[in-house]
Give the backbone structure.
Amino acid sequence: METFIQLTVNGLSNGAILALAALGFVLIYKATGVINFAQGEFLLIAGFVIWFMLVVVGVPWLVGIAVAVLVGIALGLVIERLVLRPMVGEPVISVIMVTIGLSAVLGAIVQIIWGTRPRAFPDFIPSGTVQLFGATVAQNRLWALGIVAVALAGFGLFYTRSREGIAMRAVADDQQAALAQGISVRRTFAVAWALAGVSAVFGGALIANLIGVSGAISSFGLLVFPVVILGGLDSVPGAVVGGAIVGLLTSYVGGYIGGGLETVIPYMALLAILLVKPYGLFGQLRIERV
Amino acid sequence: MASATGVYHTSYRADLALRHTRAEYFRLALALATIAALPFVVSPYWLTVLNQIGIAIIGAIGLNLLVGFTGQISLGQGGFLAVGAYTSGLLAARAGLPFGLDVACAMLVTAAMGTLFGLPALRLKGLYLAIATLASQQIILWVVTHWDAVTGGTSALVVPPAELLGWQIYGDMAWYWVIAFCAGVATLAATNLMRTGIGRAFVAIRDHDVAASVIGVDPFRYKLLAFFISSAFVGLAGALTARYNLIVTWERFTLDVSILYLAMIIVGGLGSVAGAIYGAAFMIAVPVWIEELSRSLSSLAFLQPDLPAIQQLIPGLTIVLSLVFEPRGIARIWQRIKDYFRLWPFRH
């Protein structure tokens, strides 16, 4: 029972972090229809920037996060303007390949600036353990869950309450109708990319807190794909549910079966879902048969 | 695209011919002469680079059949190369199969695996397919590194030297001819495939799958066939990697390799056999050039410690830049150069 609770808390917190990472992905896909294969590298860059600000420059962690948020926004805007905008109107396959290329470029740039040596991430949330239902649970896991809940609620409020958020939903729904309402689609695309950069800061900080700052963050970021496919590519609640499922699945398989199977089980689940229900649990059904 | 003046066809046979003008035959002869002369003029190190290029050409042609001609994106190239390399290596090392037979088996096994992982393509398009093939890449690599009893897990698999009809293929020079022969056959096979009904069906599916099914092209059958044929080429490339290097390790087949091959066909030209050749040569040769430059020029010596990262940067940068500036790649640039001289001194 104790193992079960530990595995559940670990799985849920991993899942929550994955959901946050997937959120940036869903934001971009929903608003612009672009699938961003470089999301893992966004997380990687955010992790390294925060580490650099806190450890090398030595600023308070709030300032470090603020700088990382600015870098995330700038990164999103620059990529949208220089790479994605010229691709408007190109075939889907070209847009996919351009983000794949982008992921390799960003990964290499991080490697050129900071090298490949893994770094320890400073404890910005309390470590140690607490007792929960008779099981010993790492405290930082619970903190991660809380932080993700707050971040997701913040993004949810942005979507439903702010002008920009509502404009973004309008663009996602129907670009022409949004244009007719006087919403700038270009501006909304830019905001979507900037927001993806911001969400990557929180996701990247939490992942780095779990596994340290290294290239492994971007491999962890690849798990975003099983999450979004399970939940549905264009669904924010889907990202949360998908994150929980993938987190729990890897945690239980790792705890009860082991043997490295936990690293590949999300991809097997992904293939199975794609064959049975390609639009995921909550995705919008667009029936297109060939 | 301009065609030469005075060339007209009076039969379908002439219309279908691969080459029409004397200039085209001359360029072919020139290319063949260059291939025959190259190994005698380059340094031993560049001979190994040429061999790598030859193997990459076969793999890139295979990938281009799938991505460029049929429009089915694949991120699983590294995984399929691994299937080919391990099948050939294991059959040669454990079962002692003669060279040739193991390569043929590797092609068949890879083609079968490609078809199996291509099954999602029947229901999925574009981005969903990209994610599905990404998953297959991860799964294949996981099986290779965890199936200790067969593949030896993460330790290297040593492959015995190849022997063909009593001739021991040993050393880079001998392998150059074997690889050049295989790459030539692959080029010819792909070029000819694209003038058959099958090739036209592939292009029809890429351009519009619904319209293709209306004119009687069965997308189910031809998508799977594209995965089968493309993976057979990739299996050949994988098998040659195993037999040429005499060693198989899983690090050669990671996701980076899939991206590298995508970069090859994008920079060379999607949907062009010649493009796959240009792209493979470009993507293999450029990192080597950069390495040599940084070693010979002292002003570029600061690049030395960053070389691994730069070698990772090049494929990504190539993909982004060519898609943004010249989506049809080197093949299109070469076409424009030819058109320019054909029409000279007139511009249009």
